[in-house]
Structures are given as C-alpha cells and as structure tokens.
Amino acid sequence: MNDTLKIEKKWQKYWEDNKTFKAETGSEKKPYYILVEFPYPSGAGLHVGHVRSYTAQDALARMMRLQGYNVLYPMGYDAFGAPAEEYAIKTHQHPKKVVEQNIKVFGNQMKSLGFSFDWDRAFSTTDPEYYKWTQWQFIQFFKHGMAYKAETKVNWCPKCKMVLSNEDAAGGVCERCGSEVEQREKSQWMLKMASYSEDLLKGLDDTNFADRVKLGQINWIGKSSGVEMDVEIVGGGKFSIFTTCIETVYGITFFVIAPDGKLINELMPRVENKDEVMAYIKETSLKSAMDRTELNKGKSGVLVKGIKAINPINGQEVPIFLGDFVLGDYGTGAVMAVPAHDQRDYEYAKEHNLDIVQVIEGDISTKAFEKQDYLGKGTKLMNSEEFTGMTVEEAKEAITNKLEDMGIARRVNNYKMRDWVFGRQRFWGEPIPMINCPECGWVPVPDSDLPVLLPDVTEYEPTDTGESPLAKIEEFVNCKCPVCGHDAKRETDTMPQWAGSSWYFLRFMDPHNKEEFASMDAMKYWNKVDWYNGGMEHTARHLLYARFWVQFLYNIGLVPNKEMIWTRVSHGMVLGADNVKMSKSKGNVINPDDIVNEFGADTLRVYEMFMGDYQMDAPWSTDSLRGCRRFLDKVIRLKDKVNDEDGFTKDLELLQNKTIMKVEYDMTHLGYNTAISSLMILANKYDELDTITKKDYNLLLVLLNPFAPHITEELNEQIGYRPICEGTWPVYDEAKTVELTKEVAVQVNGKVRATITITIDDDEESMKEKALDCENVVKHIEGKEIVKVIVIKGKIVNIVVK
RNA sequence: GCGAGUAUGGCGGAAUUGGCAGACGCGCUAGACUUAGGAUCUAGUGUCCCAGACGUGCAGGUUCAACUCCUGUUACUCGCACCA
After folding, report:
1. Across-strand partners of A488?
2. CB contact set of A699 (below 8 Å; sequence gap of 6+)
3. Residues pairing with A163 in the sheet
C-alpha cells in the first residue's frame, strides 16, 4: 500500500471509530439535511459519475458541520429491480445474495472515497424492516381509496416479460432493454396519481427546485385549460369533446373519436359500416404505442356511417370519424376537428377530402393557421356569426360564456399525467400486501402480518404468460382471508422499483424505528430535505413519484409538510475521454477504484469537483486529474515553509479573507470548480513566499478539507493541530476582503489605453484626474474634443472623444 | 413539431450586478536542475499584416461600455412527442 492510501485509511478509520459524522436527531444544533440519490447497487460497481455528486454533497456537508450545523448526510441502496434479478437467474442464486455482495462492494468503494455519510443510518430498500413500511404505506393508499385494481391496457415488454409504466415505456420502447413495447390487457394495481395533478403543480411553489427541474415536473403533469362541450348526435344520444381552442368552434367540419374509447362501442348498434369500423378498431389495438404515435405517417381513419353530430353553436350536421390519433384515455376520447386552424385536422381533412371552414383571419392556403400563429396578436374572427370581428381572446371568453349559458359546456383542465401503474410481474420487488378472498374481495394484509416476505426459493424466472413468478409458489399464494378466514389467494405482483425510492428520505430521518416508518417528532426535527442532488434523468419521474407519495402521506396526517424536499439540484454526467457516455461497449469506462489506488481518493475528489461546471456534462481527462494531484503535492510541500511565528502573515490577510468568502459562496452555489481554483490561487500565493505561519497553513488546509479530507487532516496533524473535523470553519472579515488599492482600466472610446492605480478613497473626480494624466490617454485624446467622461467608482474610467 | 439548455484559445473551463474577455488547470514551447523525468523550478503561450488591429456560433440592434440585454438565425444536447 502506498503512503497516500495509508493516510486515507488512517483517517477513514479515525472517522469511523469516533463516529465523526453521526447525525443526532433532536440535537440543539441547527439541523441541515443533505441528500444524494442512493445508488442502485449494480454489479459494475461505483461509477465515477456517483463520485461527482457524492463528493459535491460531501464537501457541502463537511463545510456545514464545521459551521456548526447538525448535518444529516445519509446513504443507502435502492436494490430492488430487474438487473439484480436477471443476474441472479443467470447465476442460479437468490437475488438477495447478489444484492448483498454488490452492497458490500459499493459500501467499501464509498468508504475508500472518504464520504462523510452517517453509516449508522444506512439501509437497503430490500431490507424486510424497510419494505415492511413500503407495504404498510401501500395499504394506506388502498384504505384511502387511492389504490385500485383495474383492467387496463398496459405496456408489455416481451423481452423483460414485464409490464412497464408509461414513463418506463416512453416512446414505445422499453426503458431497460430497448425492445418495442406491446399493448396487453392486464388487471393491475393502480395508484390515483392523476388526481394529484393540480396539487403536484401547485406544490412546486413550496419548493426551491432549480428552474429546469420545475419545468420538467410541469411538462410531465402537462396541464391544459380548455372547455369541455357536449355534442348531440342526430337521432339521439350525445358525447363530449375537450378543446383548448373553443374560439374555432364555428370551423368544425367533423368530429374524430378514439377507436379505443368507450363511445364507439355505445354507438355501434347504429353504425352502418360495422365491418369497416370493427376492422379499424382491431387494427388500432394491434399497433404498438410506437406505431401509433409515429409521426410522418398518413392520418388513418374511417368514416362512421349512419351517424352525424350536431355542432351545438350553429346546429350544423357534420360527420364523425374514427381516428387513431385520438387517444381513448386523454380528455374525453373525442375531439372537434377544425382543419383550418389545426395542422393535424388539416392533414386529416386533406387526406379524407373534408370541408375546411376558416374562422380566424390568416393564411390557410398551404397549412393550418394555428393558435401559435394567432394568439396574442389581436387577430380577429370571421365566419362566426355575432363573434365575427372580435379578437381571438375576446371570442374565447364570449363563446365559452354563451355555451355555458346554454348549459352544454364547462371550463375544465386536462392533464397528461395518468394514474400510476403499480404492479410488476416480477419476483424481485416488494410483494403487494393484498389478499383476494372469494367472499370479501380485496383485503389488505393486517399490519401484524407485515412484512409479506419474499419466499426463499430458487425458481423465480418470469413466466411467458405474464404472471408473476410468485404465482407458481403455492405456499406463498395460498392463505386465509384475514377478515372471514376463508381460503384465499395472495396478490403475486410486486411493486415497481420507484416505490422504495419514493419515501427513503423520510426513513433516513428515523431509520431504526420499529413502530412507525418514521416518527413525527424526528420528521419535524429534520423538517425537510434541505438540499437534494440527483441526475437530470430522475428529475421528472422519481421526483414526481416521491412528491406524490409525500403529498398523500401529508393528506392523511403522517408527515409534517406537503413538500418534504426544498432544494433540488442536478449534476451533469461524467463522460468518457472521447466525450461520449461511458459504456462497456465503447471501452471508455473509468473505474474509481483504479484512480483511488493510483492517485488517491483526495485527488479523484478534487479533480471531479474541478473538472467543469457541475451542472453540465464533462469529459474525463486523466491529464487534468494529474494536475489535481500536482496541486495536492504542492500543498504537501508547503508544509516545509511553515515557521514558528504566531498569527497570520500580514501580507496574506486580504487574499485569505477573500478566499474564505469565495469558497463559502461557491460551495453553496454549485461553483465547486471555482472554489478549488481560488484555493489553488491561495496555495500559489503561499508558494511565492519563503515562509508562512502555522495559522496560514492551517487555514488553507481547513478550506481544502471538504474536498480533500484525508491529506488535509494528515498535514494538519503534522503541524500539531487538533483534527479539522472537530474544529470550526474560519470566519472572514468582510472589511478585509476589499483591496485598499487596485488597478482599474482607463478607456478612450471604449478601448483600454491605460490603467491607473486607485485607492479605496479615490472618488470619481480624482479617478478622472488620474486617468487624464496618463501618457497614453493624452496621446489618444490629443486634438479631439472630449464629449464626456464616464467614471464608475472603483471600476473603470471611459473617456468619450470626437 | 413543441419545450428547455448549450455554443468562449489547442483542451476543460472562468468572468456573482453590463465595466480590462480568457481566472484556475491541462497541453504546448524554451530554459534550469538532473544518469533519468510522467518530479521540481523559471519564462512564454487567443489571432493577425504586432507603436496597432481583430476577437466569446452567425447577422443585426440598444449602450460611453455587451460573453452578459433585445431581435432574428444556425448547430448540437436533453426532455416530451398526433395531448385536442
């Protein structure tokens, strides 16, 4: 083992032995909760990307502890999920074993990097003591009518043999394996997430998420405000449509209804071309989500013969079409078609030779004149009876009012967000704690019987039928109804991986509680996650699920705040040296263990903080890493300059105060790279001197400690100081961060011609005088007329001449 | 298609409020020390027609002053994608 590693091990042991980073619930100190997304412990081990965010948060945690905060910086494992299960199947072991091994590897790796986690609070989502509470919370969802079983069309991945959520199947492709997703009917547990759409939107006001994170949430929820309008069918019956553009109601030339919606089935007896319609419905149901949402394909559809609808605003009879671009589960599953002002309807009308009626002034000769073309521009209506001549905005309001007065329309909001498909036909997940009794129906497992444990079996391969592997294990399935005692069967689906990560941050507040998932007292003490960091890829889904989960718990009185996460920030990826995502197949993967062994954990930590803008992707560079090692070597060498004098070196005072201020500011503003650069500047300054005091040296070490905790502790000990981790953060004197004299530029017509040295007392007038004294300035203004002189105190002089 | 983000030397990146563009690091050049150098130290390093001029994707604009603000535009990245 080399010296660097010996030193690192020494201090890691010191922190462990002294429980240096233990977070005390209820402590008098001000609590501060710093969270990083806990990893999925894959077989590949820790990624250098993990190191980036864990180090950033670690640095913040270490600084804030020295500043007197009671910092909670926990770590755990999100270990349910398909990869572990697949690997276990391949190697014929229980996934539990695979996960145990991986967790051990991850734990050792993280410890070798010196992260200041409170390891006493660590857990895995796969621990029965943890998933007991995940199951218990599911039962609360059920008891409050928020969980239900429904026959739904689900996204089915034929390769993974499992059902996927809409989010997992985004784009019609399996998130995990990339296979094309099929549609299957399946009875599924669902959580009523859609009913929280508005709350999840409003809740964002109670957070301090980065703008791009908030936006991601808003886009997923996908709110649109519009009007729902009833439409009569000739010869009886009616249906509703949803539109955001009611101002175009006079332009309706047909309606389109969803082939997978309920409406067409109701109308079927009166349909004249049943065969054609049925065939189209069948055709649609066979299409995968991908085919159906594929752009640049013809607008398919069939005319529903024998049925006409009446445009309620003017009584006009128009045809009804079946078209697969209308989705059965969004809005009302039916739309009004206004080809003049909606490009999709325009194309549909062209394809099927339908009328186009223009109702808003604009050019529709080659394409539709759509809302983005006319909104907010004072554009006027035409062909719209009494509304003709009104602006679009006025008409929107007036037409809605009229339809409301007629009693056939309502203002409504629609949301893209759907209910959460909560079942997975997988072995390696939390069993859904429900029992199906022929007498009583679905009954939750009593609290006293929780957790419902995963059986210790070796056969758990997914089935081709789509049933969970648990269904084949009789001793698991067969049970008694807890209500009536009748023979009953357990639910065999398990929960999605998102379940465990939806509330883990609450458990960290009180991880050993045997009575509750976390006590209200503990949660009130820590209050919220103050600073949550994770990948951009999780800012939509994980964060939304977690917020939904928390809001539900809040509504039933189990957590103290409606939002339990205050600030959310996200980091950029660490790319390979070739500037593309690291992957085995590209052979550009950097293993953090190798770097720690060769250069030390401190070097890796400093490098990953220095490599670039924290929020942006950055390519790996071993050369730059070496540069960081050289910086630490320089810090080590500076020890030879330490003298026995008391206090600080006077000449360093200004820079020292400025550096403290900068490091502090940067660390709380994601400016880790500039914090390190300011420390390099300070070290360079020390290096210019022949000798520095112990206090000078100690100051540098303390400021650098959050980034390079091992070597700084070691050097600090060598000059005879008490451990940094038991000390305090330096306080800067603001008055001493301002230079008494400095150089400022003098411009003539905006071009720098000279610099002058000014003191803090120099006012505008004296700056001007000094500027006009400069030889080079005189040269450039000679023979010209001075129009004016702009002087910004302490910053710049600009002389404008003609 | 919609939404968001990004664009600065050979490279990663700085520039907190409009105020000397290129901090800091890498790389490179020359030199010192050295058996040696992937160590250390010194000097240099945006471009060019070098007393000066030009330079932050491109074209305009506002301003005494623009990487920063405004208008338009291009390229790339990410997210969503027939959402009525």
Report:
1. A479
2. A648, A656, A660, A730
3. A156
Q: How far apart are CA A343 and CA A303, in angstroms?
A: 19
A626 CA vs B38 C1’ separation (Å) = 9
SS (H, E, C) A211-224: HHHHHHHHHHHCEE
Sheet holding A529-535, edge to edge: A69-72, A30-36, A529-535, A565-571
Distance CA A751, CA A774 (A): 14
User: Which DSSP string corresponds to A298-348?
Assistant: ----EEEEEEEEE-TTT--EEEEEE-TTS-TTSTTSEEEE-GGG-HHHHHH
Residue A333 pLDDT level (bands cut at 50, 70, 90) = confident
| Cβ atoms of A277 and A264 closer than 8 Å | yes
Which conformational region is residue A782 in: left (phi greater than 0), alpha (psi within -120 to 50 degrees), or beta? beta
CA A752 to C1' B49 (Å) is 22
Place of tokens 């229980």: A94
Q: What letter would DSSP give residue A381? A: B
More confident residue, A497 or A526: A526
Verify if strand B has an atom below 7 Å from the CB of A376: no
Nucleotide nearest to A334 (CA to C1'): B84
Pairing verdict, β A30-36 and A69-72: parallel
Cis peptide before A451 (omega within 30 of 0): yes
Give me the pLDDT at residue A175, please.
64
How far does chain A reach from its first CA to its final CA, in angstroms? 72
Sequence-separated (6 or more) residues with CB below 8 Å from residue A216: A539, A540, A543
Is the Cβ atom of A624 within 7 Å of strand B at any atom? yes
Beta bridge partners of A535: A571
d(CA A540, CA A552): 18
Give A159 or A575, the one with higher predicted confidence.
Answer: A575
The 10 Å Cβ neighbour count of residue A156 is 21
The token duo for A481 is: 């109804």
- Round to whole Å and give the CA distance between A244 and A341: 12
A619 CB-to-strand B distance under 7 Å: yes
A529-535/A30-36 β-pairing: parallel
In contact, A233 and A239? CB cutoff 8 Å: yes
**Strand B at less than 7 A from CB of A516:** no
Q: A295 CA, B1 C1': separation in Å?
A: 9
CA angle at A338 for the pair A337 and A344, rounded to the nearest 5°: 75
CB neighbour list of residue A407: distance below 8 Å, 6 or more residues apart: none
pLDDT in tens, A610-663: 999 998 889 999 999 999 999 999 999 999 999 999 999 999 999 999 999 999
How far is residue A340's CA from residue A363's CA, in Å, rounded to a whole number? 9
Cis peptide before A706 (omega within 30 of 0): no
Half-sphere exposure of A297 (CA within 13 A, CB side): 11
pLDDT value, residue A295: 40
pLDDT value of residue A287: 62
